[in-house]
Request: fold
Amino acid sequence: MENRLFLRDKNKMCNDLTFEELQMTKQVMDELVMMAIMDSEWKLIYVNNYFLDTAEYTQEYLYLKDFWHLNFKCHTPKFFANIKEVISGGEKWIGEFCIYKKYGEKVWLKVNIIPIVDGNEKVIQYFLIFFEGDKGINDKEWKYMAHHDELTDLPNRRMLKYCFEQYIAEANQKQTKLAVLFIDIDHFKEINDKYGHRVGDLVLKEVANRLRMVSLFSKKHQVFRQSGDEFIVLLDDVENVKEKVESIIALFNDPFSVMEYIFYVQISVGISIFPDHTRNKEELIEYADIAMYESKNCVVSNYTLYKTSLDELN
Reply:
């Protein structure tokens, strides 16, 4: 039987997450919201940096402290008893309470407390997610943020991992081919160095907006932000792939207007083909990356189809 963790909400299962998915969600939430984890005895076993910066405590000080101790001056024992009764039964609690910062200042927070239960529906931990003011994130928004890049709003590497497997499975089933495009912005570092990262981020958002138009060629063509100024495009149809790549490159013929600057942006593209070059998705990305760097050295074309001889150059 697969080992799964369940999040229970109001007498019914609302979500089921594998441990890997749970860890991924935790990683994303760490960067976006204040978060803490309690064990089954209400002891803090983890608080993220966002929470530490807000509450002005250290990880070492809070470790294994009773979480409710941070609130005891603000609320009555009955208030906490009611919360404990709800979450110990496996139900999610959403509400508002205050905590005291290290130096005595009070801060009011909206809180989601989510019980984590094992396969026997026994509560083993509690996720606590805090929002300041009117800020709040629902379950669908969490899932969306976990799979999309915060800056460009494109699907991210996590989404690429899941989609890639689906693309390959479908290609295997239909006995078709799949093209992987590795795209890099030429001279992007010079933009960051000369104009600053704020302008660089705006350029990346504009590049992402242009690449979104790839979906106009086919609804199954999908664009992902790999990292930095690198993007991945999956093409489920490799017929006339070079013409399609030329169409993508042509999306950058018009200049970008960013703040008071005008930029002429070019991209370099590397191409690998499933299953011609390999059936391994990591190798497909690696080969497309190698081909992309060859494109940067090529004065004839902005794109290169991977071939074995390129390996010998790296």
In short: The radius of gyration is 24 Å. The chain has eleven helices and 14 strands. The first strand starts at residue 4 and ends at 9.
